[in-house]
Design brief:
The chain contains 15 helices and 27 strands. By secondary structure, the chain is of the alpha/beta class.
Length: 548
């Protein structure tokens, strides 16, 4: 338990105490030490079962666990022939296609490091990521060569021979399939592979401007995927993943599938309108709920779907009750971050309705506490910042010593999220200390968008805030102060400017021109005063979706 809920032990319910006993039992279990063990165990135990089903790729692409193991080993050998070895940093830019997980697993068993790339990135954003991560190789889908060409400065050490392209027909770069075919299926990587070896540099937006690379180890990913499986009291056979594979969820769901022998059914993209049909077609029993589904009409047949486990993040108690009634199963809120993986979960065995709408209890291998500004633990129901530590959390931000210094206190990671802990021991999120916007599955740094806007020669200053949205969770709004009142810069022109510098999900939906900003004593824009001027932040705003 956390440092500040140990004092509650005598008042915690029997259900909560039983959960923490189960948590301790899980923490005592033995999990695979690394991805070599994970993959070999899965291949031996579930050999002929289908492991991957990319049902929207061409006419569908499937691999059994034994076939997946062979493909991974063969590609890993091909990678070594191209110079990829333990510790190599490899940027991977692909859509949801079966080559992506094969690539990740091949890098994993070599001990190489994947740098997943958001496929909506512009050349400018890709330029930052490749250089900031010290990537030595690039593996990309053919359609993204134009983005690579738009980079300002491809590092000199990355030659054409170090760019491997999927679906490539030309002669300038290496074809992914050729690289794979050059390897042997019985390849066995040499050298030790530690659970503490770096596996991913996973970029996430932060409050200091450009995204920062979270250093995640083999142990980080194994605990993340295996613990979810272990905490369930029933078996999972079919998982649906519909987020892009460069995100966290498909990756940990792949690890879970390898651990428990489930089939990972991968969609090309998220679609609330197709969600129910996908559940029926592929007999899905575990999935994440797309938020737009909350506003769609339910069907009496929804309660008869094969679903066993549904996750959702940041849902209200009303949303949870609605979903549980609709599908006839427990629906769990959860709290996690790229930095920590899982932090808090709502256990299914907790029947107390007060847990609904909270983030629940502390996940296995985690310690949590709510901390006041002076560093002291907060009392019950007193707001503070959530701090987390534990086995397998990230190793810090890559090449960002100042950010690491600010983010860690004696091993505790400061989440930047405002929480309270209730008298029943539940953790409830109240808001953010960090200047972040959560749009669908994306974390967006307000400072990064502000920086791009401020580079426009006709913009004096910009302030970016989150606007509540039923469909996306939050949308991006920018308040813009022009350099002169006679300036004729239009909202449309600002959007055109952003499109060449920001991924589409970061581009503001709402724009509002202002004649001045309120400021704090330290000369920062007082965003709380901007927000307080209207109950509806869409008022007086130009809406990119409506073009008005």
């Amino acid at each position: 338990m956390s440092a500040n809920n140990t004092s509650m032990t005598n008042v915690l319910s029997t259900e909560v105490q039983a959960y923490y006993e189960k948590k301790s039992q899980v923490e005592a279990m033995i999990f695979p030490r690394n991805f070599r063990e994970l993959l070999n165990n899965a291949s031996g135990k579930y050999a002929d079962n289908v492991a991957l089903n990319f049902f929207e790729q061409g006419n569908g692409k499937q691999l059994t666990f034994s076939q997946l193991n062979e493909h991974v080993n063969q590609l890993a050998h091909g990678f070594t022939l191209k110079g990829i070895t333990k510790g190599s940093h490899v940027a991977v830019m692909m859509t949801n296609r079966i080559e992506f997980p094969i690539t990740w697993l091949a890098l994993a068993i070599l001990g190489a490091v994947m740098v997943p790339v958001n496929t909506t990135y512009t050349g400018k954003e890709l330029d930052y990521l490749i250089n900031d991560s010290d990537s030595e190789f690039i593996i990309a889908e053919n359609k993204f060569l134009s983005t690579i060409n738009d980079m300002e400065s491809l590092p000199e050490h990355i030659s054409n021979d170090q760019i491997i392209v999927v679906d490539y027909q030309g002669s300038d770069f290496k074809n992914w399939l050729d690289v794979s075919n050059s390897g042997q299926i019985d390849f066995m990587p040499k050298g030790d592979l530690s659970s503490d070896d770096l596996l991913n540099i996973q970029y996430t937006s932060g409050t200091t401007g450009f995204p920062k690379g979270c250093m995640q180890t083999q142990n980080y990913w194994i605990l993340l995927g295996c613990v979810v499986d272990t905490m369930l009291d029933y078996s999972i056979e079919n998982i649906l993943t519909d987020h892009s594979f460069f995100y966290m969820d498909p990756q940990w769901q792949l690890v879970m599938a390898l651990h428990c022998g489930a089939r990972l059914n991968v969609a090309g993209r998220l679609s609330a309108s197709k969600f129910i049909d996908r559940i029926k077609t592929f007999d899905i029993d575990m999935a994440w709920i797309p938020r737009p589904l909350l506003s769609q009409a339910s069907s009496p047949d929804d309660i008869h779907l094969p679903l066993k486990k549904l996750f959702i993040g940041g849902a209200s108690a009303e949303n949870i009750v609605q979903l549980q009634k609709r599908f006839g199963i427990k629906v769990s809120n959860a709290y996690g971050m790229t930095e920590i993986g899982p932090g808090l979960i709502v256990p299914e065995e907790i029947s107390d309705p007060d847990v609904l709408g909270t983030c629940g209890l502390i996940a296995p291998f985690r310690q949590c506490k709510v901390v006041l500004e002076n560093g002291e633990p907060a009392e019950v129901n007193v707001q503070g910042e959530l701090w987390i530590k534990g086995q397998g959390i990230f190793e810090g931000y890559y090449n960002k010593p100042e950010a690491n210094k600010e983010s860690f206190v004696n091993g505790w990671f400061r989440t930047g999220d405002k929480f309270v802990q209730t008298e029943k021991g539940y953790f409830k999120i109240i808001g953010r200390f960090k200047d972040m916007i959560r749009r669908s599955s994306e974390n967006i740094s307000a400072m990064e968008v502000e920086y791009v806007l401020s580079q426009h020669p006709q913009i004096e200053q910009a302030a970016v805030v989150a606007v509540p949205d039923d469909y996306r969770g939050e949308e991006v709004k920018a308040y813009v102060l022009l350099r002169t009142s006679e300036n004729s810069l239009t909202a449309e022109q600002i959007i055109d400017y952003c499109q060449t510098r920001l991924a589409v999900f970061k581009i503001p939906r709402y724009l509002e021109f202002v004649s001045d900003f309120p400021y704090t004593p330290t000369k920062k824009v007082a965003k709380h005063k901007l927000i307080a001027t209207s109950k509806d932040l869409t008022e007086n705003s130009w809406d990119r979706n409506k073009q008005t």
